[in-house]
Amino acid sequence: MVIRGVVEKVIENRGEHTFTIHGVHVVLAGPACLINHSCDPNCMHVLNESGTFDIVARRDIASDEQITHDTSAYEYEVAHFSQECLCGSDICRGEVKGWKDLTKEERESIREYAIPFLQHISDLEVLADDSYVESREHSG
User: What pLDDT score was predicted for residue 34?
Assistant: First the structure.
């Protein structure tokens, strides 16, 4: 375990350093809320007994290496901010995005370290969600 996930506060709207846990937007205490995104992260999220996430190493982390996680592996949608990805990894996707905006291949490549909620969403459910959103946008 790298960082113990403890909820500092619950907030109404998503923000750049929030997590969505069981449909509630939270800020985690301590450095957990400040971990940057990487498309090839050295850490992942594991649910703990309090119902939040611990940040756990996926591989060995050098003493001078930044702690990173993959936003796509714990957020279904990242509509609360839009940004170009600056992780610099060899497998960089070019932008920070949520699970639903990944290609099928991208979802498969991170499924092993995505949170359980996302692991169990099928490709058909993602497509159905996109169709529902598009139909709502066009119905005005």
Answer: 81
What is the C-alpha separation between 22 and 20, in angstroms, rounded?
A: 7
Q: Which of 3, 81, 85 is nearest to 44 (CA)?
A: 3
Of 21-35, 51-65, 119-133, which has the strongest mean pLDDT?
Answer: 51-65
Cα–Cα distance measured from residue 102 to residue 11, given in angstroms and rounded to the nearest whole number: 26
Query: CA-to-CA distance for 94 and 87, rounded, in angstroms?
Result: 9
Name every residue whose Cβ is closer than 8 Å to that of residue 46 and which is 6 or more positions away in sequence.
Answer: 53, 54, 56
Closest by CA position to 29, among listed 49, 55, 47: 55
Under 8 Å CB-to-CB from 131, ≥6 apart: which residues?
A: none
Domains of the chain as residue ranges with CATH: 7-139 (2.170.270)
SS3 73: helix
pTM over 0.85: no
**Whole-number Å distance between alpha carbons of 42 and 51:** 22
